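# step 3/5: fold
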Amino acid sequence: MNYKIEGGNLPVLKVRLMQGEQIECEAGAMSWMDDEIEMQTAAGGLGKMFGRMLTNESAFTNTYCARRDGEIAFSSKFPGSIQAVEITPGNGIIVQKGSFLASVGNVKNEVYIHQKLGRGFFGGEGFLMRKFTGSGIVFLEIDGSAHEYEIAAGDCKIVDTGYVAAMSESCRMEIRSIKGVGNIFFGGEGLFNTVVYGPGKVILQSMPIGSTAMQLYQYMPHPSN
């Protein structure tokens, strides 16, 4: 299997499958493909189906298998980037809901639930995220550009809410309130930050779709009362 990501900030993932190889994606993610590739749709069990729905993903997944060598392409739903993340046994990744695009290899996909309520209420990433484990490559949709950091054990990265796209399963996420009345009212950063503790990797995104939507909303015409 070979792949390439093209298109700049309107990216397309193009995957070249050899005969017998396959790739999994959520229903509706395929943009175009060669006739040598065929599709199979599955829910993967009731629990997995509801889990995907809770994390803003399709209830069904599609598996595309190459009868002969051929290409299949997946387009991003939002201007940004597509990130390829390799996972190995014991080195899984936790991602924001709705960011899964496709995966190849022996990859397990399950719901990740925050154990502390504060993370869901104030963290910007919500109660539910997705966790990918096993062995293979996971392709993620990133809002804006992707920025990777390795966080050492005992160290952390302080992030504004909504900017965490993914992190290693070895990382830990907490919510920290901003100190100081002046900082809260005049700093423009809100009330809380997300803190990601190492060891592990964190992938940050430069243009969270929620923040972008609020910025665009200011310029949209609104009906008068």
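# step 4/5: annotate
Helices lie at 46-54, 117-122, 181-186, 209-217.
# step 5/5: archive (pending)
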